[in-house]
Amino acid sequence: MTKRIFILNGHPADTSLNMALAQTYAVAAKAAGNDVRTQNLSEMDFDIDYGLSGFENPKPLEPTLETMMQNIEWCEHLVLVTPMWWGGIPAKLKGAIDRTFLPGRAFDSRVPPGKMPLPMLSGRSARVILTSDTPRWILSLMYRSAIVHQLRKQVLKFVGITPTRFTFLSGASHPKTGQVDRWLTQISALGRSAR
């Protein structure tokens, strides 16, 4: 069964391992017959600062952010490829989320006092491909997988995108010989299976 897949490369640089991973997933997913859209954070021009406008008077979305939100609304499966920097996602990627995941499109805040907002992006799954230098066991044992909880529960599940699965690729800055090829093979398999 084919899917509508949106791949967001969340690395802010023009060239990166993340770019190669996103492209590999896209090629494999398209070859398997899926409808695929991609967007690279490095090519997106927008103000990352949410500012003090509040939910009542948010800044208008720049065209590139509007495209990102339309792609998320369109897709059945979201693939986010991102590095982990200082225990979190890059500031520009966080800014894109801050600016686009707003009431009326990502969640409905018109609920009784004390109730959680209602998600508006239900019916979508996600795959986060996370590159880092931190080994998975250290991320889990020492940092309690904070980035996983943030992305899975506080961001994606909050707006209705669930389940979210993670692929961890550690040692990204100085991979061992042949490691990048093995990662690309792994990501290609995920793309073919649209997972």
Automatic annotation (TrEMBL):
GO terms for cellular component: cytosol. Pfam families: Flavodoxin_2 (PF02525). GO terms for molecular function: NAD(P)H dehydrogenase (quinone) activity. Residues 3-177 form the Flavodoxin-like fold domain. InterPro entries: Flavodoxin_fold, Flavoprotein-like_sf, NAD(P)H_dehydrogenase_qn. Keywords: Oxidoreductase. PANTHER family: NAD P H OXIDOREDUCTASE-RELATED, NAD(P)H DEHYDROGENASE [QUINONE] 1 ISOFORM 1. Belongs to the NAD(P)H dehydrogenase (quinone) family. This is Putative NADPH-quinone reductase. It comes from Sulfitobacter undariae. The lineage of its organism: Bacteria, Pseudomonadati, Pseudomonadota, Alphaproteobacteria, Rhodobacterales.
